[in-house]
Automatic annotation (TrEMBL):
Organism superkingdom: Bacteria
Alphabetized GO MF terms: DNA binding; DNA-binding transcription factor activity
Family: Belongs to the LysR transcriptional regulatory family.
The protein's role, per its UniProt record: NodD regulates the expression of the nodABCFE genes which encode other nodulation proteins. NodD is also a negative regulator of its own expression. Binds flavonoids as inducers.
Lineage of the organism: Bacteria, Pseudomonadati, Pseudomonadota, Alphaproteobacteria, Hyphomicrobiales
Protein name: LysR family transcriptional regulator
Residues annotated as domain HTH lysR-type: 1-58
InterPro entries in alphabetical order: LysR_HTH_N (IPR000847), LysR_subst-bd (IPR005119), WH-like_DNA-bd_sf (IPR036388), WH_DNA-bd_sf (IPR036390)
The keyword Transcription regulation is assigned to this record: yes
GO BP terms in the entry: regulation of DNA-templated transcription initiation
Signal peptide start-end: none
Alphabetical keyword list: Activator, DNA-binding, Transcription, Transcription regulation
Length: 309
């Protein structure tokens, strides 16, 4: 098995058709078919089911596709690293961020990459924190800003900042006062929360308090940013969130926010990467840039948080 065979395999997998795959790979269809057959012989298992209208991946083919993408990406990164060294930050870099990260530093990050690193191609993926972590674990992103990731031996998680949490909702549900609200009072409110699992753990540092909110107060579980915002504006319930999450609605006066106390609720943001993937020059530079932008936003009050870096 070599890189050429893997590239041919990926072309067939993505096109589901030998003729189209041959065009994409700029190779004769007979040669492409020969390489696929050799791969299947090497693995002693079929990678595709041949059908009248194309090629359908088998379970083995599905698994090989995931590995092949990672292998070719790593090989390309290694080639760039050796050829270019640290003199030019170039190539592809993929970064995943929870919604708060994109709101706070998304535009400054994009502007910095476009102006300072013209040879670097940035891919920025926004999702809920749990989904962002899954993108990282699947090697779909190189670096990720994630809230409260689980302890994983394959994960390097660097604490970046700590945010205080607020109860947000309409004035009809929370009143017009901006005074803090106790945790006990929050448990008596109808809450809109993230679905259980990786997404919900991003809400609070304390899993015991999180469990109590989930079991006593949650009326809806939504893994949707727009859905949660819409439900809040409609007065369907309240949410435990940061001010940054609903900053536009707070400025417009359509929602109010009251800090949760007794106890104070917090969540921690981490900058994560996979342990088995060595840092490239581009990753190192993007890590430095992201931490610098976060510190800048916190320093000028645009991101209400306590820096941990």
């Amino acid at each position: 098995m070599d890189s050429r065979q893997l590239r041919y395999f990926i072309a067939v997998y993505e096109q589901r058709n030998l003729s189209r795959a041959a065009d994409q790979a700029s190779v004769a269809q007979s040669a492409l078919s020969h390489h696929i057959s050799n791969l299947e012989a090497e693995f002693a298992t079929p990678l595709f089911e041949r059908k009248p209208r194309g090629m359908e991946p088998t379970a083995a083919g599905e698994r090989l596709y995931e590995h092949a993408r990672i292998i070719l990406r790593a090989m390309a990164a290694a080639e760039r690293e050796i050829k270019e060294g640290s003199s030019v930050i170039a190539g592809d870099i993929s970064i995943g961020m929870a919604n708060s990260g994109v709101k706070a530093i998304g535009v400054p990050l994009m502007r910095a990459v476009l102006t300072k690193y013209p040879n670097l191609k940035l891919s920025l993926t926004e999702s809920l924190s749990g989904a962002t972590l899954m993108h990282l674990m699947a090697s779909e992103v190189d670096l990720a800003l994630v809230y409260n990731p689980p302890s994983e031996k394959d994960l390097v998680a660097e604490p970046v900042l700590e945010e205080r949490m607020f109860c947000v909702g309409t004035a009809e549900l929370l009143g017009k006062s901006k005074k803090p609200i106790s945790f006990e009072e929050v448990t008596r409110l109808p809450l809109i929360m993230l679905r259980h699992g990786l997404s919900s753990r991003a809400l609070l540092d304390d899993p015991v308090l999180l469990k109590r909110l989930e079991t006593t107060s949650a009326i809806l579980h939504l893994n949707s940013i727009s859905g949660t915002t819409g439900a809040l504006l409609a007065g369907l319930g309240c949410a435990v969130a940061t001010k940054l999450f609903v900053q536009e609605q707070l400025k417009a006066g359509s929602l109010v926010a009251r800090e949760v106390v007794e106890p104070t609720l917090t969540r921690t943001l981490y900058l994560c990467r996979l342990r088995n993937r060595p840092m490239t020059y581009a990753m190192e530079e993007m890590r430095r840039l992201m931490l610098s932008l976060i510190a800048e936003q916190v320093g000028r009050g645009a991101w209400e948080a306590k820096l941990l870096i």
